[in-house]
Amino acid sequence: MFDRVRNVDGGRAAVYAEGGTGWSGVRGKRVLVTGGTRGLGEQIVRLLSAEGARVATCARTARDLEELTASLDTETFTRPLDVTSPGSLEDFVVATAKRFGGLDGVVACAGGSRGGGIEQAAPDDWAATWEVNVGHAARLVRAAVPHLRAAGGGSVVVISSISGWKPGPPAQYGVAKSAQIHLAASLARELGPDNIRVNAVSPGSMLIPGRRWDRMRREDPEAFAHFVAAELPGGGPVAPQEVARVVAFLLSDWSSGISGAHLPVDRAQNAPSPDGY
Ligand SMILES: NC(=O)c1ccc[n+]([C@@H]2O[C@H](COP(=O)([O-])OP(=O)(O)OC[C@H]3O[C@@H](n4cnc5c(N)ncnc54)[C@H](OP(=O)(O)O)[C@@H]3O)[C@@H](O)[C@H]2O)c1
């Protein structure tokens, strides 16, 4: 059953499978999603759960994980951890495969940026931004491969960004997101013989309640309207639910022919921010 909810921009309707759609694409799939308590990761976890997948997720804040599991009808395996902390993510992958009796897919969704522009960002900020985006994704795949191979194959989705292919500051973020696209394409070739597909998804500026674009919309509606008019030919930012559906498709066997691909989900957005290219 489709539950049509209004996107937070009040305009277009984003189809979101609140109660499941009856689609069998990910039913029974065993999937680990990093960074599943907020934003895009939360929507991926909710959609996969609603569609009958068995889902594991992690984030640093234990309370958020507890609130997430309490709000879901289905069992979700969670663990508070920092994906950049050596060994923690790898242990969680092993624990998830043990808990679910195997693993069919992983989604590297945790990510973000630290530091400002080129004169403000310290070398540590570059290293931290690299690690939370690229380093964690590579370690996630490395830990998951034996389990995906044992399952006869699987699907990996790396969440990149419009900033990974349409340049805009801060550079340390765009560079890391760009590397994630290359990582997915490269691993797709390396892991293809094991029937493991690897793809990158690049969301545009997502309208997430309380986050940057939502705040800008409320606090500086004129600047937001200018941003939309200049950079968003589709009339507004994408909702995280719309991106989550593409991720679910890539995890499903319906996308069996897709590997090494880079899928933008940005409704033809131009520049990644009001700062332009
Ligand atoms: N927001 C956008 O408009 C946008 C656009 C394009 C691409 N993206 C990409 O989409 C992904 C999700 O972005 P978002 O904005 O939806 O994220 P978000 O709202 O900032 O949420 C990030 C999630 O990851 C977790 N997380 C962050 N750092 C972590 C760490 N070191 N270890 C473990 N968990 C961590 C957070 O929980 P804790 O804080 O509790 O750890 C939270 O669950 C990111 O890769 C981002 O680069 C976002």
From TrEMBL:
Residues 29-204 form the Ketoreductase domain. Gene3D superfamilies: NAD(P)-binding Rossmann-like Domain. Keywords: Oxidoreductase. The keyword Disulfide bond does not apply. Pfam families: adh_short_C2 (PF13561). Belongs to the short-chain dehydrogenases/reductases (SDR) family. PANTHER family: 3-OXOACYL-[ACYL-CARRIER-PROTEIN] REDUCTASE, SHORT-CHAIN DEHYDROGENASES/REDUCTASES FAMILY MEMBER. This is Glucose 1-dehydrogenase. It comes from Streptomyces siamensis.
